[in-house]
Amino acid sequence: MNEPLADGPLIAILVMAVATLVTRVSGYWLMGHIPLTNRVRRTLEVLPGAIMAATIVPIVAKVGPAALVAVVVALASMIVKRNEFIAVGLALVAVTLARAYGF
Amino acid sequence: MTTHSDTRTQAPYWSFAGLAQGARMCGAMVPGTVVFAAAYGTLAAQKGLTLAETVLMSALVYGGASQLVGLEVWTNPLTLATVVSLGIVTAIVNARFILMGATLRPWFAPLPQWQAYAALNGTVDATWLVAVRYRGEGGSDCSVFVGAGLTLWAVWVACAVPGYLLGAFIADPKRFGFDLMLPIFFAAMFVPLWRGTRRAIGWAIAGVVALVVSYLVPGWWFIVIGAVTGSVAGAFIDE
Fold first, then answer.
1. Are B206 and A51 spatial neighbours (Cβ–Cβ below 8 Å)?
2. Interchain contact, A41 vs B99, CB within 8 Å
3. Taking CB atoms and an 8 Å cutoff, what residues of chain A touch B211?
4. Does ipTM exceed 0.90?
């Protein structure tokens, strides 16, 4: 399990592609057989944001104040003006400044 | 099977005009996709992927968030354990496609199966939103969904290249915050996802659980355990 794999990157990319293909077709396939319950539907509604939160929070805790600044600036920028270009740009500037001042 | 209430809509069909309409309808999502693709390319360069591997992953996976999270799990060299992890993480991050695919069933069901399953490969958040809007207006031309999918796919694959080159030639990416592209992007994506507090409580639970798990369990499991716990909890909270 823990030895380096020959052609590792290629195998990994193919595994990721197949995993994604399964998610793309399985819901469609399933709807022809079993109806989604309300509870499952609600779970899947919350899931995208939950994935993001579950990824961000531990990274911020690990990296420290610079990451917190990045996340807060990106979020605030999107709330004020819903534009990904501006949000990412401002967040990167904020991190650069924070790190230049030693955070 | 389902409540097929859309008697006013025609049977599904294909047209070249629909491809163009789909491309137009996803136009607003192009700038965001450009930045997202460039961020992915930058991270891929930092993680030691070759340019060919970077482009191949975008072309075959075509799932932005899953590719960014996948790069977080990525190790150099890769082991069998990591590859298995990558497969599981990818499937979980893309689990929302399961629900999206389910919602396309009433529209695509009359198509020959191979056409429906081929079209489903264009499912990403943006193309699904285009599909929902177009179908909501009574449309039946499946080419609109495919046109949006092909357009964003081309943008997604092509724009990974400048991002990769930027990442490879910047000596100290941390100085400019490029190592934080993933949290920055995810934070920005919360705003369009906002639908009131029930979801937000689920997200908060996900974040807290992930944080605790990240201290207790080695590796990337915190994403999966946190996300599943938070979304199940969110589903049980009343509006």
1. yes
2. yes
3. 57-58, 61
4. no
